[in-house]
Design brief:
The chain is mainly alpha-helical and 116 residues long. The chain has 5 helices and no strands.
Length: 116
């Protein structure tokens, strides 16, 4: 029996937990869990994943979460040039993802009413 081994591009391999959390948080932001939001958020996630490595994503997210922390602990994050650099990359990748993956709402045709 021959088994083909597929090479996985490790730099763009995000952990499953990160994938699920991103999509669920995105769906909540868009108004809830439904098919339209699922497709939009999965599209946005894929765009982010192809736009940066997981390591850079993680650095950007960590900076984003902790930069507003007051005091010395917050200073550790605010003064982190690497984190700030990847946070700025993350913002650009998100902006591109948001414009590429629009939210499509179901359109229903309304029958015209006749006025006689």
């Amino acid at each position: 029996i021959a088994i083909d081994v597929i090479e996985v591009d490790k730099k763009n391999e995000f952990p499953t937990e990160v994938t699920v959390r991103y999509v669920l948080d995105c769906m909540t932001t868009l108004g809830g869990q439904n098919d339209q939001n699922l497709y939009t958020c999965a599209c946005r996630y894929d765009a982010i994943r192809t736009g940066m490595t997981f390591e850079h994503y993680e650095d950007g997210i960590t900076y984003e979460r902790n930069r507003a922390m007051p005091g010395e602990k917050g200073g550790f994050f605010r003064d982190n040039e690497r984190g700030e650099e990847f946070y700025n990359v993350l913002l650009k990748v998100r902006e591109k993802a948001d414009s590429s993956c629009i939210v499509v709402k179901q359109v229903k045709r309304i029958k015209p009413t006749s006025k006689n």
